[in-house]
Design brief:
This protein is an alpha/beta fold. The chain folds into 2 domains: 151 residues, 3-Layer(aba) Sandwich (Rossmann fold); 101 residues, Hypothetical Protein, Haloacid Dehalogenase-like Hydrolase, Chain: A, domain 2 (2-Layer Sandwich). Helices cover 33% and strands 25% of the residues. The protein contains 11 helices and 14 strands. The chain has an 8-stranded mixed beta sheet, sandwiched between helices. It has a 6-stranded mixed beta sheet with strand order 8-7-6-9-11-10, sandwiched between helices. Strand 13, helix 10 and strand 14 form a beta-alpha-beta unit. The longest helix is centred in the last third of the chain and has 12 residues. The N and C termini lie close together (7 Å).
């Protein structure tokens, strides 16, 4: 039986207009009352995620910043912080990338140097608490940085060739067409779910996950049942145990409703 549901947001749970499927809030609330837990695992910032789930905030877990920060509802549970001495040379290299803008993510908010309006607009779709500073990195000197997110016009072509050399020091993840994330080595969405599974006493075999992009592969590692969306990246489809309808077709909702009818969702 399934006791833990884990879902990515963008390209997975949310449709192309960034909307939740109809009835999702009600279904998750009903499942919680039956002892089934839900984790929203996303590259988005915590302060952005809570806007979507306000009615059931205290009934869900949130693994934000691609798993680097874990909240149980409104309570901060854990932050996987980065080593700033090791991070400094990576920041200098990031500054050399054409049209790159980088964000330091902390539990207090996300900090970024001034950037063009269209880039700021894209960032604010993900980072609700985005704070501009003339030297964002210095602004974070006294804070724990849990993720550095890099925005470029083509993340795979422009950014990855520069930062993948740091993959022995940090977890370097392609998380979108315009995004690459750096986090503490050994930390991804899967590690966050493992942490939550231990807290709840739930096994891999009792966990189901949904994802669409390579930054979701960690989820598949710690889930007995894994669904790649029909619109998913080929690398994700290749390792999934199942394929769900696309995000624009409400795939996550449809699969969960069917499993609920078949009594697979129970504690």
């Amino acid at each position: 039986m399934i006791k833990l549901i884990v879902t990515d947001m963008d390209g997975t749970l949310l449709d192309s207009q960034h909307r939740l499927p109809d009835g999702f809030i009600e279904l998750i609330s009903k499942l919680y009352d039956k002892g089934v837990y839900t984790v929203v695992a996303t590259g988005r910032q915590y302060y952005n995620v809570i806007k979507f789930f306000e009615p059931i905030l205290e009934k869900i877990w949130i693994a934000s910043e691609n798993g680097a920060m874990i909240n149980k509802g409104s309570e901060l549970i854990h932050v996987f912080s980065m080593d700033k001495e090791k991070l400094a040379p990576a920041i200098e290299d990031i500054k050399t990338i054409s049209e790159a803008h980088y964000i330091e993510c902390t539990s207090e908010g996300a900090f970024v140097d001034p950037c063009p309006p269209h880039v700021e607009h894209e960032m604010r779709q993900i980072y609700e608490r985005l704070l501009m500073s003339e030297d964002a990195y210095e602004k974070c000197a006294s804070m724990e940085i849990c993720k550095v997110a890099i925005n470029t016009p083509d993340a795979a072509a422009l950014c990855m060739p520069v930062v993948e050399k740091y993959s022995s020091i940090f977890n370097v993840v392609l998380s979108g067409l315009h995004w690459v994330d750096l986090m503490k080595l050994g930390v991804d969405k899967g590690d966050a779910i493992s942490y939550i599974q231990k807290q709840l006493g739930i096994s891999k075999e009792e966990t189901i996950c949904f994802g669409d992009y390579p930054n979701d592969l960690g989820l598949f590692r710690v889930s007995g049942i894994s669904y790649a969306m029909e619109n998913a990246h080929p690398d994700v489809k290749a390792v999934a145990t199942h394929i769900a309808p696309s995000n624009d077709d409400g795939g996550v909702q449809k699969v969960l409703e069917q499993l609920y009818k078949e009594n697979y969702l129970t504690h």
